[in-house]
Amino acid sequence: MRCAVLDDYQGVALTSADWSGLDATVDVRRDHIADECALVETLTGYDAVVLMRERTPFPRTVIERLPDLRLLVTTGMRNASVDVAAARERGVVVCGTGGLTTSTVELTWALITGLARSVVVENSGLRGNGPWQQTVGVDLAGATLGVLGLGRIGSLVAKVGLAFGMDVAAWSTHLTADAAAAAGVRLAASKAELVAAADVLTVHLVLSERSRGLVGAAELAAMKPSAFLVNTSRAPIVDQDALVTALREQRIAGAGLDVFDVEPLPPDHPYRTLPNVLATPHLGYVTRGGYAIFWREVVEDIAAFIGGNPVRTLT
Asked: pTM for this structure?
């Protein structure tokens, strides 16, 4: 079997797990192949392809042009950029892996605290012999944390907010008062109420047609001018053009972002230069513990497929 591993940006795929027992030739790409034709040309002749999360989309138009493909493995048990139905139609098995929830929670709080205390600005000033103390920090204790989506990640983010002494409220379409109370937070009466009350609004929803654009121009206009928006979920949940406009016009205090419509982020994107943006290159899942699970189970998936008994199949 010939296996291609895509988007191993840090060059750690082969050292994060034991690949030696596989009856396969494994080729690793550290670069990102954005062009679909170039991707197909690169992958022609491979039996298996390993995807790191949603870095490289795998739509029907790619799958149908790879007649040798028999196995797709994605890290995580959900990958919205893979057309699983098209793969199934072509007889391609799609498998996933486990992962960590806590890593995204931790990065969310790195962004929140980084914004609240202007960590990047102050660090840059110190390193560049700039002014000593340029900013006045924002207190999180006593502030309102608005959690948009109280699932596995959102509930843990809320728990940390409570530990900071914040007033924590949550909302999503089907969230009930009992579920909110079980997480120790209060249920906002509506999305509008949550957005207007939040000093920090943090997004933790699964991307779907229902959640796409859920935070748009109207919601951003309703936020406090002193409020921060944090998104470590999926970029399209927030209207990106509306967010850029709100940030440029300083209608909100700032945004902490780990997810983007196009990744890697284009060199000329406004997020790279807007002073009220704290952005990281989709690092929510990028930790040693998370990678250890990803790559170990990728190897297990490939071995199980070769043995005729695929595991963790996605349907």
From this structure: 0.95
Whether residue 254 contacts residue 45, with contact meaning beta carbons closer than 8 Å, is answered with: no
pLDDT at position 169: 98
29, 55, 204, 234: the active-site residue: 234
Instruction: Decide if 249 is catalytic.
Output: no
The DSSP code for 139 is P
Is 53 a known active-site residue? no
Cβ contact 55:32 at 8 Å: yes
Q: Distance of CA 38 to CAs 29, 35, 62, Å?
A: 13, 5, 10
For residue 167, what pLDDT is reported?
Answer: 98
Residue 174 is a catalytic residue: no
Q: Which domain, by its residues, includes 293?
A: 2-100+287-306
User: Which residue out of 29, 53, 282, 297 is catalytically annotated?
Assistant: 282
Describe the strand order of the beta sheet including 2-5 as a list of residue ranges.
25-28, 2-5, 48-51, 71-74, 93-95
Active-site position among 263, 269, 296, 312: 263
Model confidence at 267, pLDDT cuts 50, 70, 90, reads very high
pLDDT tens figures, 3-24: 999 999 999 999 999 999 999 9
What's the length of the chain? 315
- Which pLDDT tens digit goes with each residue over 66-94? 999 999 999 999 999 999 999 999 999 99
pLDDT at 114: 98
What CATH number is attached to the domain comprising 58?
3.40.50.720
Same structural domain, 185 and 76: no
